[in-house]
Amino acid sequence: MEGVTSARSIKTVKKMISSARSSAAVEDKMAFYDSWAENYDQDVAALDYHAATVAAKTVSCHYSGERGAAAVLDVACGTGLLAKQMKQFGFRNFVGIDGSKVMLEQAQKKELYRDLKLCFLGEQRLPAETDSFDVVVICGSLSVDHVPVRVVKELWSVCKPGGYVCMTCRHGEDNLGYVAALERELMQMEEDGLWGCENVSVVDQWSKAVTGSEDGYISGSVYLYRKRQ
Ligand SMILES: C[S@@+](CC[C@H](N)C(=O)[O-])C[C@H]1O[C@@H](n2cnc3c(N)ncnc32)[C@H](O)[C@@H]1O
Questions:
Q1: What span is annotated as the signal peptide, if there is one (predicted)?
Q2: N or C: which end of the chain has fewer CB atoms below 10 A?
């Protein structure tokens, strides 16, 4: 994303994101993403947002199968930044899901997905067959007022045995309670024998901070789990 110039100042982008964080209603959240869709790619480039790049690299480092054929489910795909990154590592077979119709329209324009589906995660069941994807990725969306932690079990469910589930989570101060709940769930699922942890990495410069009281960069994590055979 380097080299892309935002049409809007970072201050404007931060103000817009902070205003949306005050609403927890899913309809409001999706309306916010509908209104952001057109400027999203440029704005997150200005915020130096690394989640999609880090997630794609993490999957690529661990995936040893035939990439072109691997079925990848991009959950909360937004405008399709993750598929764009994964394509550079040889992945070609993407299905995207998101709750924002306009974000999906932007993703469609990238011509990378064989299917795109509208779904409000947490309220509606993930629209995918059990044991059907080689890789399931959720990037930039496991956070407070976005995708609830309980959806992680659904990500696991639609992944094939032996397949990978890759998740990212930002460490903004408003999200620390969510990070703790997420990590409890990931560990519990490992203790229950559902999957094994392949990699957890913390990235210091995840993106520029967007909440009022934070400055500079926030950190974030990428988690990679492999479903038991
Ligand atoms: C920060 S964007 C991340 C998009 C993309 N994965 C990326 O990394 O650029 C968050 C996305 O999650 C979607 N989203 C948030 N909560 C959702 C929910 N409960 N159900 C479905 N989509 C949701 C939004 O519509 C938005 O496209």
A1: none
A2: C
What's the pLDDT tens digit per position in 78-127?
Answer: 999 999 999 999 999 999 999 999 999 999 999 999 999 999 999 999 99
User: Taking the domain 10-227, which CATH number applies?
Assistant: 3.40.50.150
Rounded to the nearest angstrom, the distance between the alpha carbon of 98 and the centre of ligand 1 is: 6
Distance 215 CA to ligand 1 centre (A): 23
CA–CA separation, 112 and 84 (whole Å)? 7
30-47 pLDDT, tens digit per residue, is 999 999 999 999 999 999
Q: What is residue 63's three-state secondary structure?
A: coil
What lines the ligand 1 site, CB under 6 Å?
Answer: 26, 29-30, 33, 51-52, 76-78, 81-82, 98-100, 103, 119-122, 139-141, 146-147
Helix, strand or coil, per DSSP, at residue 61: helix
How, if at all, do strands 217-227 and 195-208 pair?
A: antiparallel
Domain ranges of the chain: 10-227
Residue 63 is which amino acid?
Answer: Y
